[in-house]
Amino acid sequence: MKKNLFILILLSPFLLFSQNNTGEIHGNFESNLQSYRDDPTIGATAAEEVILHNAYLNILYTKGNFTGGLRFESYLNALMDYDPKYKGNGIPYRFATYYSDGLEVTVGNYYEQFGSGIIFRTYEDKGLGVDNAMDGVRLKYSPISGLYLKSFIGQSRTYFEYSEGIVRGVDAEFNVNEALKIEGKTSYILGGSFVSRFQKDNNPKFNLPENVGSMATRLNIMHGGFSYYGEYAHKINDPIGSFSFDENNYATGRAIVNNLTYSQKGLGVTFESHFVDHMEFRSERAKEKEFIINYIPTLSKQHTYTLLALYPCATQPEGEFGFNTNIFYKIPKNTLLGGKYGTNLNLNFARTNSIEGGTSYLDDSSSHTSRPLKSIFIKNETLYFSDFNLEINKKINKKVKLNLVVAKQKYNKDILEGKTIGEYGIVSSTIAIADISYKIKKGHTIRLELQEMISIDDATAENHADGDWHMILAEYTISPNWFFAIQDMYNYGNYNEEKQLHYVNTSVGFLKGANRFAIGYGKKRAGIFCVGGVCKEVPSSNGFSLNISSSF
User: Fold this and answer.
1) Domains in the chain, please, with CATH?
2) Model confidence band, residue 37 (pLDDT cutoffs 50, 70, 90)
3) What is the pTM assigned to this prediction?
4) What DSSP character marks residue 252?
């Protein structure tokens, strides 16, 4: 009764304003339902409830300089690829924001990011089950043109609760050209951040620091088609991840990020790199990923094709060095290789290593406070991940489009999945993809994907990875309302003949206006699912799925 009364109090201002037509209400709804049945061949188990369900409703009200909103969430019970701690119904996200004379005030929940997110980023990704929204107060203020200030204090979300730690932060960004009214081809933006966590020391054995701080400085320079972004971060006095419990020598964390881009008509080049050492920052002394309040993206291409993403790179915040290079080039129209419509090329190379000889800092029982900034070219470093791929996108004629991809990947399964060192070793894969779209007539398109993966690994006979895969996908779209798809992943090269299985999935979708309905049935393999270097383990499953989404 008290919960329903609280919800009614929260909703009453929105309902009142909407009835008086003095503001605007917008929002969206999403429902994901999945059935689970036993399938011993793929290791899938049935859910006790048979059907599991996640649902979300966002409501946003705006009027002038005021914005308010809330999100209702329901997990009855959570889908199997979610943490079971997501359970029940509630309104874990609600906020109110107003703006007045350059000052923006937010109370309640909010998402925020300082710089590239190395020392602070809170965000939501329902696909990963990540939601570390802050609950507290946030201020933004611009006292003069070109100067932007932020500050906040709060606790981060963990399921329907909040972490024990209190997080405080300030950020300043100074746009030199805007503040000094400098006109020209070169622009400069300077920035700096400080974030700290307070958590009471309740450990009877060790004298743990109650305040842990991190700081970062950044620089962004833009000149014509060139752009450079660099950021350096430093974290002090954090016992998390440290094997030295000397109260005067807790581990120091560092990170350096560099991004360089160049673009002109028909050509684009990007180069990004980072060095990170003991830079996982949490809102509470805990091992669980839901307490992480910073973000270090993986330095690899975010693939959308299934087999290219079968072995995704997971960021290792306790120690890695990596880089990612992209070259985009469009062969001009009406040339020998460009043809009538031109041809788009994307060449990508990414590589991530350990930052010292050996597998990781865990081999060293010291606090690693003086690890050198080694480069990728030093011998005896451990490879975590590499990806070399070429993508060719070409419009053949008015009816046919073609996308071809070839890639070579190396994946350290032991490190990236937390296995015993030497259990699997490096998985080396060669992948080829052909994606063909054919427009039958107006509004009717058929698309065919053919994917092939040949892979080997360093494991002993009893510990091999999955081996070779083949995948075929056929999709038929009747725009703007219907789509039909069938997909078959066949693990024909598995070293275990009993696991040489087909994973078939079918789906049908209907779209009308702002509403989307999709129903599917099939098998899903167990594995690792990653977005931007943040990963979760997904169990195998066999059953029906229903997705409904709507916006208003």
Assistant:
1) 101-296 (2.40.160)
2) very high
3) 0.89
4) P
